[in-house]
Design a protein that fits this description.
By secondary structure, the protein is mainly beta. It contains ten helices and 40 strands. 12% of the residues lie in helices and 46% in strands.
Length: 523
């Protein structure tokens, strides 16, 4: 998708294996579309037989007319052999990365290789790095503390907490019960981050793309608001297909889950945006008559609950669901997991989000209800991902996911040591389940800045008939300037209530266009 800039934009392409960089600066009086830099997809043929790494870098840079810089100790005495014919430069650099273990420094948004450990020295590597899960505990920085409480940010129902890695800048991580190890997914506005002992691994996840290469890092120190953990294993997946910051509207750098939950009783106060972590031995389990306590079952360190849903045909079906704080929707269901689980008669094609392998598509519709203990929540909106995507990662007896649109209606207590989850209903439990009734998918191309772009307009939707188009830049919504809005504000407005009138001014090809539409339910 093309995005528009204001005043000036600096685009830096940084190669991951070498300190090769290109800066493209574009300035204009009016917003101009920014084209994706094609450099990394340009082809090169290169042959080297036992040639110095320095010379190979120089040849690549001369070929593409690039500037570059590196630590002389990095390349000193390094000899490599390559025989690559007409491949993209990203292929060449990725091959170099896969052939070596790396230690990274990221300073001023430039990725630097600090060390170069050949694969044949992997035994030494494994001796240096501690990947023992049982020892990677989070502890209170003050040993006398019994609990810690801190604020979190929220966007699209997701919990976002501050994290420091090896005394880095403050990073924003999504609290995601579906994640085993902390994962770094992107690095917007990060000037300082050190990751130790990077080792290539292959990962897969939901999305359109193939499996991709991640980097496993050990011996990291992670700090979170009064908590500290040493020797943490961290995975790094930097992919253009997984840019979640633009979808959420604020800089997000990664995900963290099991390694934090496993050591504490974790209380989530969605109404007041507060997170409390307590040592299990000091936690007082005060259960009142409104609390719903459900057992947690763990598989591959992920928490599951068993409950019952009512289909849109009023048929009761027992289901096994992953409890996932990192899923924005109420429920995801796989139609392949049970013959009785099918698409509701009324449904829409929908963009569901982004996975590690790219965009997720599927359908959305309402089912009759879901039981949460003795409480039934009526007509929740369910996402049905494309079956071929879900089948890649879902086990035979899992039916889907219980997500944050349901969890946010409760005061939630995860007790991993005690293998249970406690749900205390709040005033939100009576709220209707709504969805975006405009037909618009909107992103924030510069996360944290008030720039909002229309990514997609659903055919025959209210926004479609109002004449809105892809790549329109939103200037105001209901007479409120984009400068006073967040992406979360806009999304909440578009799913607020049926028959609400929405006025909107957009910028298209330098021209301001005013239009309006009314939110309409399809199901």
């Amino acid at each position: 998708m093309k995005t528009k800039t204001i005043k000036s934009l600096v685009v830096q392409w940084v190669t991951i294996a070498l300190l090769i960089f290109v800066s493209v600066i574009a300035s204009a009086q009016e917003p101009e579309p920014v084209q994706k830099n094609p450099l990394m997809d340009q082809n090169i043929s290169i042959f080297a037989e036992n040639e110095s790494l320095k010379n190979v870098i120089q040849r690549i840079c001369d070929y593409f007319n690039l500037d570059y810089s590196y630590n002389s100790k990095l390349v000193e005495g390094k000899q490599i052999s390559l025989n690559i014919s007409n491949k993209p430069i990203r292929y060449v650099l990725d091959k170099l990365m896969k052939d070596y273990f790396l230690i990274f420094d990221i300073e001023d948004n430039i990725l630097v290789v600090r060390d170069y450990i050949p694969l044949n020295e992997s035994v030494k590597y494994d001796q240096q790095v501690k990947f023992t899960p049982g020892k990677n505990l989070f502890e209170f920085a003050n040993p006398r503390q019994k609990s810690v409480t801190f604020d979190f940010k929220t966007a699209s129902n997701l919990i976002i907490i501050p994290v420091l890695i090896n005394d880095s800048d403050t990073l924003n991580f999504i609290l995601d019960t579906g994640v085993r190890y902390p994962i770094i997914t992107e690095l917007p506005f990060v000037n300082k981050l050190n990751l130790n002992f990077m080792q290539p691994i292959t990962v897969s996840g939901l999305g359109e793309g193939e499996s991709l290469t991640a980097y496993r890092s050990g011996n990291n120190t992670v700090k979170i608001e009064g908590l500290v953990s040493y020797n943490q294993e961290i995975h790094m997946v930097i992919s253009e297909d997984f840019q979640i910051s633009q979808v959420l509207g604020l800089p997000v750098h990664g995900l963290i889950g099991f390694n934090l939950f496993k050591d504490f009783v974790v209380e989530i106060d969605y109404e007041n945006n507060k997170l409390t972590l307590s040592k299990p031995e000091y936690y007082r389990d005060r259960v009142n008559n409104k609390d719903i306590v459900m057992p947690l079952h763990f598989e591959h360190n992920k928490p599951y609950v068993r409950t019952t849903i009512m289909t849109d045909k009023n048929e009761e079906v027992s289901v096994k669901l992953l409890v996932d704080t990192g899923a924005s929707d109420a429920i995801w269901l796989s139609t392949n997991s049970d013959d009785r689980i099918g698409l509701p008669e009324k449904h829409i094609e929908s963009f569901l989000g982004r996975g590690l392998n790219g965009d997720l598509y599927g359908k959305k519709g309402r089912i009759g209800g879901i039981w949460v203990g003795p409480l039934i929540l009526y007509e929740p909106i369910v996402a049905f991902p494309e079956p071929e995507l879900v089948d890649q990662i879902i086990s035979d007896d899992r039916n889907g996911t219980l997500g944050a649109e349901i969890l946010r209606r409760f005061y939630v207590t995860f007790d991993y040591p005690g293998k249970q989850i406690k749900l205390r209903p709040t005033s939100r439990v009576k709220e209707e389940f709504n969805y975006n009734m405009s037909g618009l998918d909107i992103s924030n191309p510069f996360p944290g800045m008030p720039v909002f772009t229309i990514d997609k307009v659903r055919a025959n939707s209210p926004a479609y008939y109002a004449g809105l188009m892809e790549n329109d830049q939103i200037l105001d919504v209901n007479r409120t300037s984009h400068r006073s809005l967040s992406l979360n504000d806009i999304n909440l407005l578009l799913q607020s209530k049926e028959d609400r009138k929405i006025s909107m001014t957009v910028l298209r090809n330098g021209e301001e266009i005013k239009t309006s539409f009314t939110l309409q339910r399809i199901f």
